[in-house]
Amino acid sequence: MEIKQNASAGTTESSDIMITIGKNSGQGILIELDSSVEKQFGRQIREKIQETLTNLSVTDAKVQAIDKGALDCTIQARTVAAVYRATGEENVDWQVLNTWNV
């Protein structure tokens, strides 16, 4: 999927994550993370975002994530929503999304 515009999903409330995604001008995937649990779970949060982008065939994007202790399923859902908003894609294949491991 190609990122066409900046888009975001989520909030900065407790137990949530705000994902903002935009173009990265052919630079691949760049994930910037600001998390209240960075030391304990920073690597896992980045991996979940990367895995979700890979499953959506996103190869070029700049992701800014502000995490407030979100669970993996929330990280995945917010990333998917931001990607679909940023690509302008309206036809979500929910069957494929349901087969992912969370």
TrEMBL record:
UniProt keyword terms in alphabetical order: Cytoplasm, Lyase, Phosphoprotein
Subcellular location: Cytoplasm
Annotated Pfam families: ACP
Domain of life: Bacteria
Role noted for this protein: Covalent carrier of the coenzyme of citrate lyase.
Protein's UniProt keywords contain Cytoplasm: yes
Native source organism of the sequence: Enterococcus ureilyticus
Upper lineage: Bacteria, Bacillati, Bacillota, Bacilli, Lactobacillales
Family: Belongs to the CitD family.
Protein name: Citrate lyase acyl carrier protein
Any one Gene Ontology molecular-function term assigned to this protein's record: lyase activity
